[in-house]
Design brief:
Oligomer: single chain
Number of strands: 13
CATH class of the largest domain: Alpha Beta
Structural class: alpha/beta
Number of helices: 15
Shape: globular
Radius of gyration: 21 Å
Number of domains: 3
Strand order of the largest sheet: 2-1-7-8-9
CATH architecture of the largest domain: 3-Layer(aba) Sandwich
Helix content: 25-40%
Order of helices and strands: HEHEHHEHEHEHEHEHHEHEHEEEEHHH
Length: 371
Amino acid sequence: MRYVDEFRRPELIRKTSEEIRHLADPARHYRFMEVCGGHTHAIYRFGLHQLLPSNIELVHGPGCPVCVLPMGRIDDGLAIAENPGVIFTAFGDMMRVPGTRGSPLEHQSRGMDVRIVYSPADALKMAVANPDRHVMFFAIGFETTAPSTALTLIRARQQGVRNFSVFCNHVTIIPAIRAILDSPGMRIDAFIGPGHVSTVIGCRPYEWIAKNEHKPIAVSGFEPLDLLQGILMLLRQLSDGRAGVENQYARVVPWEGNRAALKAMSDVFELRPYFEWRGLGFISQSALRIREEFSEWDAERRFAVPGIRVTDPKAAQCGEVLKGVLQPAQCKLFGKECTPEHPVGALMVSAEGSCAAYFNYEHRKVAAGVP
């Protein structure tokens, strides 16, 4: 299959890993943050961290949209669904994320009408098929999924579907990276740029990281060779004393981004003044809200939303893991009270969550005595 087999060829993977070992300065410790949750999943799935020299540390960033959503927003969405006649719809990875009174699936077991959809368009079709009910779509994701939500809202207005709304939790990647760089004591040498987000926003928005922060960044794909090539690009920049933006994923990511997707987002959304992120606190201009022109389809305007801020369980160290301060296994609850079967924090729920990825691909091997 084109663009898969070529990036999993063992001889090329070995050659690239050898180049990395040759180029890495043994007297230096490198900390590279992969921003995208898909990268974290791929790193553990393919065991790529085992191919790197010990002085290259991969730090997991806040690239999982399910993981960065605070519990209060989950509670707000479920509060809307408590209104008579409302159907709560969301992607599957949201269904087991705990709020203060349980996850959406737990609410479903208590009688709430909670349904999994695979796209916001599916939720809109459900609203058309159930004119006597109100269908609320719990929208989540970075710029990767925001265009599909925007296009669905445009279609809802065009078709005059009045029993449909969106509870918008879309966030943007650049302010999160800025917040990490501003964190006291945080040392990141370079970034593996997010592949999925970049298919929409392109590479240009990352130029400030190189120019102002002097941090190299390489936007990478998700196959083994993609990530290893991205790491090699970062090492070459550091070795040469350079800091720039490079596009390893050029076969998919256009430098200027997807202009049609960006226009749809601009037409439907505007930036929120502030939005709370799990582990990072409130970040200005970091999330999207629905414009006034689409207010009829904005669940936050149509329904009363509690808007109560809820802190995570004190024992769960999700915030430290999200910021790259701790590795997943260093959390006090990891693999004990907090497992994929019984998650305490969101990082253990989503497939892109760093804790879930580490548990499924590393912790299970250690527990089974597999080297």
